[in-house]
Amino acid sequence: MATAELAGKHLVLGMTGGIACYKIAELTRLLVKAGATVQVVMTEAATQFITPVTMQALSGRPVYTSQWDARVPNNMAHIDLSREADAIVIAPASTDFLAKLAHGMADDLLTTLCVARECPLLVVPAMNRQMWANPATQRNVAQLRADGVETLGPDSGPQACGEVGDGRMLEPEAVYEAIASFFAPKVLAGRRVLLTAGPTFEPIDPVRGITNRSSGKMGFALARAAQQAGADVHLVAGPVALDTPWGVFREDVQTAQQMHDAVMRAVPDYDIFIAVAAVADWRVDHTSDHKIKKTADHRLPSFTFVENPDILAAVARLPHPPFCVGFAAESGDLDVHGEEKRVRKNVPLLIGNLGPLTFGRDDNEVVLFEASGQKKLPRADKQALASTLIAEIAKRLPDTSLIS
Ligand code: CTP
Fold it and tell me: Ligand 1: which of 202, 281, 333, 358 to mutate, most ligand atoms within 8 Å of CB?
């Protein structure tokens, strides 16, 4: 998980009454681990679900529950607590609390803090599906959005009451991601990014196939960074064991041909294409419908290979191609092969992995190849590197006003 966006941020985390309060323990842990300071403020109702002691231990700061708290020397808790805040996050945000916020009420510490704030306000609704669907709640949420309040979620699924539907709180990891996203510089606002990631799997028979060691981590990190930078992101993924980054549209494929077809279908709607996938160059000409068995005379099977389409080159050849970015993992002479590959694929930017052994690792070191020359970036965690690469890509884009 990236920490850069949240390091040094000061958050007021407001908790209101709801069973989802127990999930805020984990959210607090994630935020603190990312380097944010978290000032927890709880409503009276929230303290019925989880204790201030727990929240104090996790946040490492005293928890406030009352406007009349004697620990605040000037008795101005409602102003002091949010003065330094980069944002107030209300999680869980109950039906009642959303109603109060929408009407500008200020009858306890947390509502007063929200009304008296100068920083952004993010709310994470959590409630039963009927409460969420209630026209009054919907009216209140619409009003809050119109007032510039950011709403994260809710999610859909099984609820504490045993029912299934919209209203449940986003999982703590998703709330964390959404908060990190909120703080990331929006260098790709209004842009649409299509990516490929992971390996492909080329079947030989129903149980065997050819694949490679790509973990998909770099492609997924880039998809996440692009989403956080404000882009609409479509990720075409080969077989990988990774969770979909929050807010990213993911399409799973197996073979290079399927990846090619998915990309070619989607690409007219995108203005940036980042090909990170380690696409198999060849596939077996005729796959067998049944498992290939050993023979009594120990005859070895033989296969004929045919070449797979080059997805990146195909996109770059389109009459109006998006801004294309390629990746290259070479086992040697990156200086020569990187630039040669960029020219051969006819892309403005190619990112070369320094060293062939980055598969599955969490860090990476890369060189950027472009017509004007090469630029090496320092070794970094893949997610931090992804944010740097997104910023580098953003700098090279044509003016938005020129994009139809
Ligand atoms: N690529 C692609 N489709 C392919 C092969 C590669 O889209 N069939 C893309 C990769 O996603 C990457 C770039 O092309 O962005 C370079 O991939 P790489 O495997 O290094 O290049 P190849 O063209 O396969 O060259 P070679 O294997 O000969 O090094």
Answer: 281
Quote the pTM value.
0.82
CA 17 to centroid of ligand 1, rounded, Å: 53
SS3 string of the chain?
Answer: CCCCCCCCCEEEEEECCCCCHHHHHHHHHHHHHCCCEEEEEECCCHHHCCCHHHHHHHHCCCCECCCCCCCCCCCCHHHHHHHCCCEEEEEEECHHHHHHHHCCCCCCHHHHHHHCCCCCEEEEECCCHHHHHCHHHHHHHHHHHHCCCEECCCEEEECCCCCEEEEECCCHHHHHHHHHHHHCCCCCCCCEEEEEECECCEECCCCCEECCCCCCHHHHHHHHHHHHCCCEEEEEECCCCCCCCCCCEEEECCCHHHHHHHHHHHHHHCCEEEECCECCCEEECCCCCCCCCCCCCCCCCCCCEEECCCHHHHHHCCCCCCEEEEEEECCCCHHHHHHHHHHHHCCCEEEEECCCCCCCCCEECEEEEECCEEEECCCEEHHHHHHHHHHHHHHCCCCHHHCC
- Of all protein residues, whose CA lies closest to atom 21 belonging to ligand 1? 328
pLDDT at residue 263, rounded to an integer: 98
Atom 20 of ligand 1, residue of closest alpha carbon: 328
- Mean pLDDT of successive 10-residue segments in the chain (404 residues)? 79 97 98 97 98 98 91 74 93 98 96 95 96 97 94 87 88 93 94 98 97 94 95 98 93 98 98 98 95 93 96 98 94 88 96 73 87 91 90 89 47
Candidate list 21, 119, 161, 324, residue with the active-site label? 161
Expressed in angstroms and rounded, the spacing between residue 350 Cα and the centre of ligand 1 is 11
Task: Determine if ligand 1 sits within 6 Å of the CB of residue 310.
Answer: yes
**Cα 73 to averaged position of ligand 1 atoms, centre (Å):** 64
Q: Is 114 a catalytic residue?
A: no
Residue nearest to atom 16 of ligand 1 (CA): 328
Instruction: Kindly list the structural domains of the chain, giving each domain's residue range(s) and its CATH number in brackets, ordered by start.
Output: 10-183 (3.40.50.1950), 192-397 (3.40.50.10300)
Query: Which pLDDT value is given to residue 357?
Result: 57
The response to whether residue 349 sits with its C-beta less than 6 Å from ligand 1 reads no
